Amino acid sequence: MSKEQIPRIDSNEELRNLLLPYCRLKYGEVWNDSVSGHKVGCLDATNDKDILKLMGNNKAILSIQDPPYNVVVGNNNTNNLGKISLGKYIEWSKQWVQNTVKKLKADAHLYIWLGADQNEGFQPLPDFIIMMRDFKGLKTKSFITMRNQRGYGTQKNWMAVRQEQSRV
Question: Relative to the CA of 34, which of 1, 67, 117, 130 has its CA 20 to 30 Å away?
Fold first, then answer.
């Protein structure tokens, strides 16, 4: 039995135009849950003004991040179908991590789920870990690996990694 592939919405304008009317948030909008106080925003994590729009003067006790946020990390400089160079990905990651850390309370926790492509030297994981050394206010608590269970779980699957950090 074959599976029908769903095209990426960033490279299929017809599908994108069909889906957009059903999207509740547009870029720059924040939804506030009046019942439990949660917020969801369609924002740029590297933009200070967007973070301020979501967080205001509040600080979080928990941040869960799952990059690469719809991009493919590669070792070339093309930006074809969301592919960015490893260097640009690490520089972008440094920006969103920095903005995240600014909005964490002193005793907060930061969880990061990150892909590691074994066909590309487990990138972006090694360079991401080295980049995280720059954040002296974070202390590593644990390093957890997990086999990605997409598809049929072949040996060629990449693995996902969660890196837990805290401010203390």
Answer: 67
Q: Please give the tally of structural domains in the chain.
A: 1
Cα-Cα-Cα-Cα dihedral of 59, 108, 135, 43, to 10°? -40
Which structural domain range is residue 134 located in? 13-166
Q: Which two tokens stand for residue 101?
A: 């850390």
CA angle 141, 145, 148 (to 5 degrees): 145
Burial of 89 (0-12, 13-18, 19+ CB in 10 A): buried
Question: Tens of pLDDT along 15-65?
Answer: 888 888 888 898 999 999 999 988 999 999 999 999 999 999 999 999 999
pTM of the predicted model as reported, rounded to 2 decimal places: 0.73
Distances (CA, A) of 75 to 67, 80, 127, 130: 17, 13, 12, 17
